Amino acid sequence: MKEADAQRHGTSRAEGTRGARTALAALGGLIAGFCALAVAQLVSALVRPEAGPVTAVGGAVIDRSPPALKEFAVRHFGTGDKLVLQLGIVVLLAVFAVAVGVLALHHRRTGSAAVLVFGVVGAVAAVGRPEGSAPDALPSVVGAAVGAWVLFLLAGRLATAPRPPRATEEAYGAYDRRGFVITATVATAVSAAAGLLGRRLTSSVQAGATASRHDLVLPVPDSAAPAVPAGADLRIRGLSPFITPAKDFYRVDTALVVPRLDAAGWRLSIHGEGVARPVTVGLHDLLRRKTIERDITLACVSNEVGGPYVGNARWIGVRLADLLREAGVRPPSAGGPADQLVARSVDGMTIGTPVETVMDGRDAMLAFGMNGEPLPFAHGFPVRMVVPGLYGYVSACKWIEDIELTTFDAYDAYWVRQSWAQQAPVKTQSRIDTPRALASPKPGTVPVAGVAWAQHRGISRVEVRVDGGPWHPARLAAQDSKDTWRQWVWKWPATSGRHTLEVRATDGTGATQTGRRTGTVPDGATGWHSVVVDVS
Q1: Contact, 346 vs 131, CB < 8 A?
Q2: What one-character DSSP code corresponds to residue 49?
Q3: Is the pLDDT of residue 184 over 70?
Q4: Residue 93: which H helix or E strand, with range?
Q5: Which one of 45, 291, 307, 398 has the fewest CB atoms closer than 10 angstroms to its CB?
Q6: For residue 165, is pLDDT > 60?
Q7: Cα–Cα distance for residue pair 454/526, rounded to 1 Å
Q8: DSSP 521-533
Q9: What does the alpha-carbon distance between residue 458 and residue 486 come to, in Å, rounded to a whole number?
């Protein structure tokens, strides 16, 4: 009986030892993964922040995701879609790290070599980005090599000696726990220091960019925007303000890390078909030119009916058409060979814009100011494109550094390769801001208010109806220009019960927006916005 108890006790201790080794092996995998990411961060600070493995893999995922998945992310996470993606990648890396840690417990070399898969994926993703180059592979490769080495050392500390004859199961399970703890502590501390150094190096570079933005003094515009007319902002509670503050302006792009460029080093090149005199300009070259200031509403093609991805701001910059003419560019209507302007961002994004549209007299500009201040980094500092009347994905290139003149037949820009249309003028849209969906206003007079937009055509009428009944004309706010949205309000004599409110707008050409509901792909959503409210 005593021998049986001792055997059961020894078996239990052995099982506990194996369980502890497995747990430590999983921890070792996580530590190795942390070391890989920390070292990769240091190396990416020396190469460029966008070359880091999480950023590179995230960018590759965005590039290869189908439009429906992108739409889902934007719809459910808004501007937080980038953070969700990064967190998802980190979680997957953690699961992978745990798996290779356990694998290394039994197959030390194989488990350690598996970490290099992490490096290969990151390197391929970084080099394969539109703006990628060979040095971008370094952060992932070096980080993975360090992670593999750390895992190899930690797995060695968990290895057990060959079982001698007649050795007890408990003795057979012995391993170097103390050595594991020391190795793990040293590796973690050194890697954390490397990661911290990488952050500081990146912050140092970004500090220069921040200082260049802080020191930038916007010129007094040669052609100032007219004062916003009295009555353009109805100032109704719950209604979007006429001018959208920069901090509230929507942001939809593919940049996981917002580029932070030093204004002094920024350059823009204009070249390609029909360019008789290639042009290269810096920011201070633009500041010395004739500048314009305009109120312009921008909208994202991903905006669903009634969605939030539209905003109105006051922009200052130079006319893009003037620069193109100086380069010898002629629009197709004047015999020019190029019908597409491909704008390239420092993050590799390409955006294709019709040359004819840019040069037809509208206030298409290279903007460096927004609402009286230099562009925020998230909105394109130091320079971005703004073209009224077109959705952002075919006009509003942020962090722009290159303009190539070509044709739509010869080149498909980034979003066109993702199943979106080559050309996309903004569609007439209207939105109910107040009352909100499922609100519970009291019976009586209830202001139903919102905004409507049809950039470069303007808004001439807005109508509201209740429960599918007759359309009622809303009162329009004063119009600033045909390139801005327009506020509206209708005083609704609300009665008790559940009601559906709908809105539609008519643009400056007399065309009324269609009630036919379509999705955003390929060239923007259509349909009437509606909200359901309970009056009680």
Answers
A1: yes
A2: G
A3: yes
A4: helix 81-106
A5: 307
A6: no
A7: 12
A8: TTT--BS-EEEEE
A9: 8
